[in-house]
Amino acid sequence: MRSISWRRAVRPPSATRTPGRRASRSQGQAVVELALILPIFLILVASALDLGRLFYSQISVNDAAREAALEASQNPTSFIPNTACTSANKADNKVMCRATNESRGSFVTVDPTDVTMQCSTFPASCPTLPALGETVSVTVTGHFRLITPLLAIFFGGQNTTFSSTASAQLLSTPTAVTIPGPVASFTVDHDTGLTPLVVQVSDSSTGTGLSYGWAFGDGNTYVGRTPPAHTYPASGIFTITLTVSNTGGTSVATHNITVSDPAPAPPVASFNTNPEPPTGPVPFAVQFFDSSTGTPTSWAWNFGDGTVSSVKNPPVHTYSTFGSFNVTLTVTNGGGTDTVTRVVHANTVCPHPQSLFTVSPMTGRKNITQFDTTNSSTGMSTAGCNNIWSWNFGDGSGISSSQSPANHVYTKRGDYTIELTASNYGGTSTTSVTVTVTN
Question: Which of 108, 323, 363, 403 gives a 20 to 30 Å CA spacing to 278?
Fold first, then answer.
């Protein structure tokens, strides 16, 4: 029989453990692993919670559809589409109340527009004319928002919807409930104005369970009770039409809107002539050119000799008689009217004047000597040439329209230059003579 001997192994000194150092490494590694695992764990927990909420919400929508269908099987006429359940209408809106109350308190949102009802035999008249044995179906749509973005990847976004439809047969022939028909009415804050005109409409219709349709007369429409402010960018007359309806009927109201373009700035009348200036011998032909600003839309010419015109640039106008004529142009646009007047001189052939005069004496004493001027200008004898003589005595005094003024006395010593300017339609000429005044 073989004997077995046991030996105790002896660990080499180099393999001896250091308990404190190993424990420190193990704790640090655990912290790192926890930091890596914890976010994943939290996401998984949140996703599981989201799935639970989603499952519970689907049950809530299913229950809401089922309870509403059961209510509809007993009271199919007690349903007002798109109308929230209130204490005032709960007797006439039992199906809606049953559906929305069943979903209340859950994670899903159900609005009045999310509840629809249909009857199998007469879909168009449901629930006005239900029949015994007819199937009534109620569809409820719920709106749900996910917490975690992880599940949003699978549902196409954070927000998702799901619906449920439940059906039931009528248990008895119901008594039809007649809802009064609506009366359409609305007001506008502006019914006239300049482009662009902004109009805000306000509904004042009466009735329950109403649906609204607006047409603004310019091709734009809106569905709902309160449309946003509407802008008319162009001028015209537009008819706003409001159509309201419920199960009791339909009503229409209209209101006209008048939109005008802003008035332009008033014009400024002006015209040119050819020749310029408009002066010449009879027969004198003048061409008139409108140069008004402000975009006039009409022109009224009066040539001062009994003739008129209404065109922008009238034909050449001829003055066959001698005289001065006030030519008036009146221009008009949507912003106002303006008038300008110019004078046309039709005269005989006027020679160019030549200014000539003499002074006697040429030297004299202040406050005593009278200097006498004698006018001998030429070319100033033709009538109708607007002959004018203008004198300047060099001491700040002068006189116009006098051929030979009275004797002139100077009050201070000095040399004075006397000037005579002769002018008419033929031209202008000036000459001068210097006199000396002593003490």
Answer: 403
Number of structural domains (the chain) is 4
Euclidean distance between CA atoms 116 and 111, whole angstroms:
11
What is the structure's pLDDT at 133? 65
Closest CA to 69 of 195, 201, 179, 171: 171
Q: Backbone phi, then psi, for 114, in 5-degree steps?
A: -90, 0
The model's pLDDT over 323-368, given as tens digits with 9 standing for 90+, comes to: 899 999 999 998 999 999 999 999 877 889 999 999 999 999 999 9
Q: List, in sequence order, every beta strand (DSSP E) within 120-248.
A: 135-145, 159-169, 186-188, 192-194, 197-199, 201-203, 211-215, 221-223, 230-232, 236-246
User: pLDDT tens across 405-419, in order?
Assistant: 889 999 999 999 999
Q: Let me know if 57 is exposed, middle or buried by CB neighbors in 10 A (0-12, 13-18, 19+).
A: buried
| Structural domain includes residue 127 | yes
DSSP 140: E
> Does 369 lie in the same domain as 423?
yes
Q: What is the DSSP string of 389-403?
A: EEEE-SSS-EEES-S
CB within 8 A of 51, min separation 6: which ones? 151
Global confidence as pTM: 0.35
Q: Whole-angstrom Cα distance, residue 78 to residue 71?
A: 9
Place of tokens 């050119």: 289
